[in-house]
Design a protein that fits this description.
This protein is an alpha/beta fold and 367 residues long. 39% of the residues lie in helices and 19% in strands.
Length: 367
C-alpha cells in the first residue's frame, strides 16, 4: 500500500539495522513507550535484527493495560445497573476486574455495547432518552480530544443522560516516574508518535535535560522504529541527550492546537493510578468541575470503590521495563489471552499478548 510499503521495505529495514550494529560499541537499553510500537517490534522481529548490545524494553504505553483495577470494578458496577447502557471500545471488555469482566456483565443481561467512537455513544443517548448512557473514556492523550468533543456536543444538545467514565493517562509523567525509579535501567526512549501528534513534544525537553536522557519521537512501522532506535543510539554513543523527531511527517513540535484546546476545556490534570505501577502524580485527566454533570464517577457515586491487584501478575514490572513477559511464571500457562491474569495479556497492544502471539516459545534470560 502506498505510504505504508515504503516504511516496511525489507532492504531499508536491514540497512538501518546494520547501521545500528556498526554504531553500537557498548550495551544500551532503550524503551519504546507505546504498545503499538511494542506490537510492531515483536510482530516484525525487529528486536532480533538488532545487535546484542542494544536491548529494547517495553514501557507502559498501552492504555488498556494501565487502566487501574479499581476503575474496571467501577465500570462493572455501573454497567450492571438496569438503567444504564454502557459503551466501550472492544478491547476493554475482556480486561479482568476483581471478580469479573464486562463480557460477563453482558452475559448476565447488562446492556454493554462495543462502539468505535464516543460520538457513537452520543447517538445512543439521543435514541434512548430514558436510559443513562456511559462511555468508557480510556486512552492516552491521543483519544482525549474525541472524548472531550463528545462532552462539548452533549452539553450543547442539552443531554442529561450521557456521561464519561474517565481513565485518561498522560505519557510524560510516566516517563518521569520510570526515570526516577531506583530500578530504572532505561537509557533512552522512543516516544509515542500518535500522542505527540496531539500534544506535540514540548514537555519532553525538560525531562531530557533533567535526566540527561535521549528521547526520540517515533512512528510505528518497521522503518520508523529502527530509525528512532538509530537516532537514540547515535546520541548515546556521542554522549548527547536531546529530543528528536523521527516522525516529522506527522508530528509537529506544538502538536494539534485544536485537540489540545478541547482537552484543556473539558478535562483537568490529576494524579492517576496506573495498573501494576501505582499512583503517578499529574499523570491523568479527569472531568473538569465545569462539566461535572458528565462525570460518571460522580453521577453513579462509585468513587469509593477500591481493589487490590493480583499478586501472581507481573504486568507492573513488564510495564516498567523491569521484566519481559516470558519471565513471568504464569505466562502462557495460568495466564493466556483466554484466561488473562492482567491487562497486558488482553489488549492487542499489550506486551504479554504480543509475546504470546509471536514468540511465546522463546525463553528470556533474566537481566
Amino acid at each position: 500500500m502506498k505510504y505504508v510499503d515504503e516504511y516496511r521495505d525489507p532492504d531499508r529495514v536491514r540497512k538501518i539495522a546494520a547501521g545500528i550494529a556498526g554504531m553500537a560499541t557498548r550495551p544500551w537499553t532503550i524503551m519504546e513507550v507505546c504498545g503499538g510500537q511494542t506490537h510492531s517490534i515483536v510482530r516484525f522481529g525487529l528486536d532480533e535484527l538488532l545487535p546484542r548490545t542494544v536491548e529494547l524494553v517495553h514501557g507502559p504505553g498501552c492504555p488498556v493495560c494501565v487502566t487501574p483495577l479499581e476503575l474496571i470494578d467501577k465500570a462493572l458496577a455501573i454497567a450492571a445497573r438496569p438503567d444504564v447502557i454502557f459503551c466501550s471500545f472492544g478491547d476493554m471488555l475482556r480486561v479482568p476486574g476483581s471478580h469479573a469482566d464486562l463480557f460477563s456483565v453482558k452475559a448476565r443481561g447488562g446492556d454493554v455495547r462495543i462502539l468505535y467512537s464516543p460520538l457513537d455513544a452520543l447517538k445512543v443517548a439521543l435514541e434512548n432518552p430514558e436510559r443513562q448512557v456511559v462511555f468508557f473514556a480510556v486512552g492516552f492523550e491521543t483519544t482525549a480530544p474525541a472524548n472531550a468533543l463528545a462532552v462539548v456536543q452533549a452539553q450543547r444538545a442539552g443531554l442529561k443522560n450521557f456521561s464519561l467514565l474517565v481513565s485518561h493517562v498522560r505519557v510524560p509523567p510516566a516517563i518521569e516516574a520510570i526515570l526516577s525509579s531506583k530500578e530504572n535501567r532505561v537509557q533512552g526512549f522512543l516516544a509515542a508518535g500518535h500522542v505527540c501528534t496531539v500534544m506535540g513534544y514540548e514537555e519532553y525537553f525538560d525531562l531530557c535535560r533533567r535526566f540527561r536522557t535521549p528521547i526520540v519521537v517515533t512512528g510505528f512501522e518497521p522503518v520508523d522504529i529502527l530509525q528512532g532506535i538509530s537516532l537514540c543510539v547515535q546520541q548515546l554513543e556521542q554522549g548527547r541527550h536531546a529530543v528528536e523527531n523521527q516522525y516529522s511527517r506527522v508530528v509537529r513540535r506544538e502538536g494539534s492546537l485544536e485537540g489540545r484546546a478541547l482537552i484543556e476545556q473539558v478535562f483537568e490534570v490529576t494524579d492517576r493510578a496506573w495498573r501494576g505501577i501505582g499512583i503517578i502524580p499529574n499523570s491523568g485527566y479527569r472531568v473538569a468541575p465545569s462539566f461535572a454533570s458528565f462525570d460518571a464517577e460522580q453521577r453513579f457515586d462509585v468513587g469509593e470503590i477500591r481493589a487490590e491487584e493480583c499478586a501472581d501478575c507481573l504486568s507492573g514490572l513488564v510495564l516498567q521495563g523491569v521484566k519481559k513477559p516470558t519471565q513471568c511464571p504464569a505466562f502462557g500457562g495460568r495466564c493466556t489471552p483466554e484466561t488473562p491474569l492482567g491487562a497486558t495479556m488482553v489488549s492487542t497492544e499489550g506486551a504479554c499478548a504480543a509475546y504470546y502471539q509471536y514468540k511465546r516459545h522463546q525463553s528470556e534470560a533474566t537481566p
